Amino acid sequence: MAETETEEPTKPVADEEDHWAHYRSIQLTPEQVVEGRARVQKEIDRARAAGVYEELLKWEGKVHWDIDIDELREDHDYCGRVAVEGK
Asked: What is the DSSP letter of 28?
């Protein structure tokens, strides 16, 4: 997947007042959002055509995640591992 190019390099945030200005300065334009969504949809369509989703369904019930989805959604560092039953 290609990296999104920014027009100017980002600078570190100097103080709290600059915090939101910094985020607005790196926000994607509406055109970039549309392009990104179109690119992702093309990738989804390619994966669907290649049968990726059908291959993933073969793993249903055979893969056990060692972290609960609610834990995963919490804001903390965690490196999850996947265990395949029978291995």
From this structure: P
pTM, entire model: 0.48
Q: Which of 56, 55, 64 is nearest to 87 (CA)?
A: 64
Is the C-alpha dihedral spanning 44, 49, 54, 56 positive or negative?
negative
Stretch (H or E) spanning 83: strand 82-84
DSSP 29: P
From residue 63, how far is each of 9, 25, 51, 85 by CA, in Å?
Answer: 42, 42, 19, 6
Q: What is the pLDDT of residues 29-85, one digit of tens each?
A: 999 999 999 999 999 999 999 999 899 888 888 887 677 777 767 765 555 555 555
